[in-house]
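Predict the 3D structure for this chain.
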Amino acid sequence: MAFNFDLNNIEALLSNTVFDASVGFASDFNTVREHAVHSAQLFVLPLADDNTNTNEVHGLDEYQVKDVFAVMIVIPCAAGNAHSDAQVKQLRSDVKAAIAGCQYPGWDPIKLDKGRTIELNKKTNNLIYQCQFSVTGLHTVTVKVMP
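Done. Predicted structure below.
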């Protein structure tokens, strides 16, 4: 198991299960904010990771690894209205249903942490909603004695 959860798994999952939006690429949240969309898009971004040493056996270190990531739902929206509300509600449901509970080798099932509206950006006319997830796993490393 690697220290970091592979978010390419989530992008592939969303591409195959959420059909009302396309999966885009962004290196960080600022890129998502500055990118005007013409149809609904999903962006998968890492948020945080935490590594807790759980056990020390001579020569081995075991870590409880927790990765937190977000799926940013971005829809074109000049002003809040019933259509944009319904679209975000449906996409929120689709994203949560697609990801929550999925399990990948070496990791526990993915947990839904929270969701929230981030902003209605007047510059790009985008509404951004964030679904936040976390995934945990155990990682064992061999202690390396350095000269």
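The first strand starts at residue 22 and ends at 23.
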